[in-house]
What we know:
The protein is built from eleven helices and two strands. It is mostly helical. The protein is globular and about 60 Å long.
Amino acid sequence: MSKAESGELPPSSVDPPGSEVAPAPQLARQAIVVTLGVYLGYLLLSLLPLPGDLRYLLLVGAFYFLPGWLLRREPARQARYQVGPDRVVPPWSWRGARVAAVSALLVFPPFVLLFFWFYSRVCAGDLSMLAPVTWVEGIVPGVGGLEDYLHRLCRPHEGGMWPQALRWPADWLEHGGLGFVLAVAVEVFAVALPEEVFHRGYLMSALEERWPPRRRVLGVPLGLGAVLASLVFAVGHLVGMAEVARLATFFPALVFSWLWRRSGSLWAPALFHAAANLLMAVLIASTFPT
């Protein structure tokens, strides 16, 4: 197995004559500034009278196209980061698909149990598990109230740990089931894949060149670069909705980082990410029926 296939990508490679290779510290600074700039730009667009779908389309376009453009003079890095040089979508990888599938089979069942248990407690009025989050909300200005959100969410909760029936989101059942096909396509190509191309392919890879991983987690090299990229990813979720609880996306981001390096393909975190979002849609529809 090659280093690229195992996820152990080298920090540098040979670029053709005439290419420019930015030093690792400069590359890392640029990646962080560009990422925060994208978030700020999306926030500023929300102040303009633009349709929400158009704003999100611009964000997705930035996630897909900015990394390759920023590294246009560095084809070797483009190839390692899987953001180019001659494509926007990463090359398909069956290995990435297998790693995503096996990981989902291991992670999703205990997550479903934890989800049902958590909301059975929270919707019964036990918010003790959320004390750290509510404390942070109390000292951060301009952040929405988690308790109010949970109160609204829990209104249709039927009580007990288990939902009375497994329910599909209503929009999945539209047009004779084509709604589900559309939901899958949106989650893969308009949500998970562009986010993984930008945050794992570009941001995390750039940060790992600056801070190469020195330890292994379950056989995979991960370090400060993955942690910082996951933190920035979580902070970015506050742009769309200023809820402290959205910072919890830091933890799945670490899983996505592991999948990226374990498989050597951005398709592994992208497929796992999309499947997790689809699973959450089913859990929400089943636990909080409308």
